[in-house]
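User: HTH cro/C1-type domain-containing protein, Paludifilum halophilum:
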Amino acid sequence: MDDKKRENKLKLRIKLDKILDERKMSQTELADEMKMTASVMSAIINNKKESIYRKNIEDIAHHLGLKPSDLFESVTVEEFNRLQELGRRKRKKKEE
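Assistant: Predicted structure for HTH cro/C1-type domain-containing protein:
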């Protein structure tokens, strides 16, 4: 696949990071409220999991008062990678 086609390819991205930021809610808070481990919640929020149980998506959406589709967005591969890097920087800054 050439670079131009790769840039136009879309990826499905979980946008829980944006939703939690808007609500001033931490990953840990959501994990605790959902009775999920922090590591699983972190992997979901940071788009590290290739597959997620449908029930988890439905439960998270219901808990936040959203539709399951509200948790996702389609972005280009380039945008996906840019957002992943921004997330890494943000997490690193919080650790300092």
